[in-house]
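Suppose you are handed a protein chain with no further information: no name, no annotation, nothing but its sequence. What can you learn? This example shows the usual starting point.
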Amino acid sequence: MASTKLTVEYIKNLLERGRRLDGRSLNEFREIKVKYGISKKAEGSAEVCVGNTRVVAGVKMEVGEPYPDTPDKGVLVTTAEFLAMAAPEFEPGLPGEDAIELARVVDRGIREGNAIDMEKLCIVEGEKVWVVFLDIFVLNHDGNLIDAAGMATMAALLDARMPKLTEDYEVDRSKLTDPLPIRDIPIPVTVRKHNEHLILDTTALEEEVLKGKFTVTTKINGNLCAMQLSDGMAMTKEEVLKAVRLARDTSSKIRENIFGDQLKRVKKQ
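A reasonable first move is to predict its three-dimensional structure. Written in structure tokens, the prediction is:
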């Protein structure tokens, strides 16, 4: 997104005074909307909009072989694609560095947050397990893609149902059975910094000013499960601790606000 030098300076001046171009406070998220079951061809799917940022995630399941070091656990494969129509700077073709980073950060949060009970995805130990493919598509980029993608993937996982297996271990997609075994709802919250100020849910225009980012993923109980500091942002120990507290409190509110019913279901398990 192209911006003029005057706009960049104006945004910087606002941030230094604890204000933003759209009137939000520095730690305030835009409106978050979630739609479930948007694809009839996936085992689970969801669309999440954070302001004008729009991300879709889908879940497909296949039968495959487990990894040698985890013969009794299923497999998770996460990919991300930034569609060319999402922003002028996105180009068609192989995933770029930003898409690869997004997929890895989201994947790490799900894995380390134990979002899925992978042992329940074992079919025949050492031979056959369920492989969960998580596909993320950025449809419109107006900032904060990692957080939007993290919410979209969790929504898709919560929406997913297991296909039925035949006696020959063939997948029968015409018969979806039990929900995917979800045991936690890890949510990423990305913090950016301008001088001493910490800022949440940045727009694409703000991200032209605030280059570095610190993503903190936390579980239902508030425990950390993943962190990613990127784009050369330097932080003091005090800033890291403050960012972690801010991310923990914010992710808790997001869970309650957009995953309320699902959160109750997961807590009961």
